[in-house]
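Reviewers of the previous submission asked for a worked example of the structure-prediction workflow described in the proposal, so we include one complete record here. The input consisted solely of the amino acid sequence. No template or homolog information was supplied to the procedure at any stage.
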Amino acid sequence: CVCVCVCVCAQAMRCMGHKRIVCSLVGIVVALLMARGTADDPTLEWVDCPLYTDAHLSTQTSRRGPLPSQHNGDDVLDVLRDAVRNPLGIPFDPRAIPRTSTPRAMCAFVDLPLYPTNPDDTRTVTVFVKKIPGKETATKQVWLLQGGPGGSSSSLEPTMHSLYDLLEENFDILTLDHRGVGRSRRLSCKHSQAETAGSAGGVVIVNEEWPACIEEVGETLDFHHAFTSDNAARDMAKLVELISQESNPPKTNYVYGISYGTMWAQRYLALFPDQSPAVILDGIVSQEGAPGLRLAFDLWDRGMNEVGFAFLNEYCTKSDVCTKHLGDNPAQFVQDVFNKHVTQGHCAEFQDDLRTDLGLFLMIPDIRTLIAALIYRLNRCNDDDKAAFKHLLAVKQEMMKPAVWHGLDSDILQKNVGSSELWEYPGPSLDELKEELETYYFATGLSVQFCPIVEEFKYPQYPRDPDTFNQTADAPNTRVLLLNGDLDPQTPIKYARHTNAALEGRTAWHRLVEIPGSVHFTVGRSPTKSSDVPCGMQILVSFLKNPNAEPDTSCLNDLEEVDFVGDPARMKQLLGTDDIYDGVPEDESPQDGDDDDISKDVFAAVVSVLGVLAIVLLVGLFFVLWKHRKNARSESGNFTAMVDTAQSVCLSYYNRHRPLLPHQKK
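From that input alone, the workflow returned the following structure tokens.
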């Protein structure tokens, strides 16, 4: 570059004498600036890679519906584990994988500025990107942003596959790991080894491990404070810019965010309002408003309890099965049952567990059918009901065992963002949250679990940017579609309604579509009667194909009804019986005392067989002795000869059948 610039400058201007020197210096400066600019610009080099991060997932053959072979319940544990680990993400559900052949995927690692707004800081962070390229004529692309915070984009791979098929290969489908997660410089507690299988919590960081982990974070605070929602949005914008250079004209860019991914997408929209003409938010994390209007982890259990009562008041009351067991006022029924525990100690050994069960099961549509049955059984609490609760407890204990996982999610990134932007300040004390938790009937206790990390262990928060935090994006040229289930316990519908109202006058168009009966992640969890494509996915595809028109929402009239009976195989796996209200749990393991009975039976059988064999051997021996005795009498006529003959027969038999010693075998 230096030589070319010098020569061109000198020849073009025909410089002479000192002018040649000046011209040469100018050329050198220009060349150096060009060289520096080239070195600083990130590069994007795609390589072929598998679409599915987990190898066994690519062998699935079902399309967005339950796999009959998986209804043994193993997948239930996987979904529940992931739901607990990523409160503002989507649990990975292998049953959602499309039935079509797996498309070609490409991956890239891109070095982006650690602090994008500080040009003097030359440090970088490597960000992982994956895409399914559309056909050659594709002119559009859609980015999928995962939630958590701290969730890996690998959970979105089945959704990428589905969109690729449903959009008929006319789009490039892309995703990325949020900085600090998965393959984008995952944050972890390496020195304290808190996430190793042999640690106190296994792969999950537990309270006793957090102090050492937080101390480790504090030693590299300047580094960890770069892992923010704002900088993740800037990563996204830079990647869109780089990829736009791959085609001429650049492909139209759309963005879909799920859960915390909606917060990420809104931050992106606020910082880069003209880069995407359409944004879709699914399971909305509200961005602005007073406490109670902006979603925060200290309000988690309060919101979940509200959704639980909506489930009873708006859906149980319309079900003959539910009202048969809980009456016409199921909400009052629940309160009366829990009051029995307080005043009479009714079925006390299961009450506390049940509160968590009701909250956890509210998150998973396939097993929230248990909620009414558990309340009904708790009220009756006979021996069969207690057996059912014990069976469920055993399943939960299996679920809570440290899972063997691929290590892409990040607890540290979750706490980094969560403590800084998803916790109110000043926040409630731990005692206040515990006292409040006792008044709820649907709760997972996330608020109580998160509180010590912020209030007691003092996780170091990064500074909130007043230009983006607690602000709604101004994007006058962008159309925004909002999707939310009205029974979403993770991002309750009230937050979506608030965000939709806040967008008024700030965007070119916006609309909230509320999906009745749907939980978190409507694109994957809003089943319909006549199609294996969820209603949320149908609406998303309709909008992406033509974002300038109203999306087709006719599937709202085809939604499956909220179920209060459940799939028999799943229910049996969880309760030990497929009759969740009145069935007697089957225990396949031996009851107390059965082992002794089995041992006695086996012993008796063995003795009988040995006895028969002994009789046969004795009869045979006496026959041999009798024969030789007869021969002996005929030859010598004396008894001594018979005894000698018998002895020789026995010795001969022994010598033929005795075991050989090692040296004899040789």
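The mean pLDDT is 81. We consider this example representative of the routine output the project will generate in years two and three.
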